[in-house]
Design brief:
Layout (H helix, E strand, L loop, with lengths): L4 E5 L6 E5 L14 E10 L5 E10 L4 H12 L7 E6 L2 E5 L15 E4 L25 E2 L6 E2 L12 E10 L6 E12 L4 H11 L18 E4 L20 H8 L9 E7 L1 H8 L8 E2 L1 H11 L6 H8 L13
Parallel strand pairs: 3-7, 4-14, 10-13
Antiparallel strand pairs: 1-2, 3-4, 5-6, 5-7, 8-9, 10-11, 12-13
Amino acid sequence: HPFPRSSLTCPHCQKQSNTFDPFLCISLPIPLRQTRALNVTLVLQCERWRFVRVGLAVPLLGTVADLREMVAREGRIPPEQVILAEVSPRGFLRSLSDPEALGAAGEAGPVYAFQPPPARRAGTAPALIAPGLARGRGSLTVIGAAVTARSSDCLHRAPGGRILLLLCNTAGTGPQLARFGPPLVLREERGVSWEQLQQSILAQLRGVLRGEVLAQGTGALFRIRLAGGSAPCTYLSPQDPRPLCHPAIDRALQLSGAGGPPHVKLTVEWDMSTKERLFGSLQEEVVQDAESVRRQQQAHGQQHSCTLDECFQLYTKEEQVQRAPPGT
């Protein structure tokens, strides 16, 4: 037929209505870009910590679940093992949950994807846990608020199980506060003492340590704060026999979001003198850019173009007409 045909099909009875509309000119829609470039820094587990930044073309209308799948393919790890978080030059900002829209991801700070260390086989004891761990009543020190909680408040049974901790090291105060060293993730027993937790953190940082640290009796070298928007500002207490067992840790686990393993974000705060003695002038981790970073920036930096045929395809694309509700 010389005139274009418009077809309307009923989804229930499949009856089709065809009309022929002549025209001399036509307004065509222009296809819009469906993706945007997003850089994600992968923190992978191998013989040593490995950092690589990759460029991804993420869907504009996608969710964090889509990003998790893409990161899992890049890192060749199962999606359920990926922990996604925004990390700024001052420390952790927030974890990303699967139902969230991807539109705001990476705007507040660069996105990091963490691969947790492999879980230890059941029945094996961690190397840093001493037998006969004391079970005294501890206290939680909360800085900046008149709130006190005891680790025993949430322990109606002996502490057990392992917990995933995301760690970020900072030094300085106020405007000079800055992150240094690599962000890390480790598994730790809930029942460890402050000294055992401190030794675990130092063991993770041994590759960047410059000064000597005694194995025992060093006292508290730093402060540990729950990160990621927990309110009020909560610090773990060195006097607590089980600092990972108080209610604030349980709340952080529950709020870690859907998708990926439950975890707790901790900021390790060093004073400048101790940081300089043990780490020198160490700044943020060195991250290698994969070729995909340049490729995605180049592809999305160019002006979006399309062919006339693509415009006609979008114009003639089948669409679902919504039925008006009764009474309208």
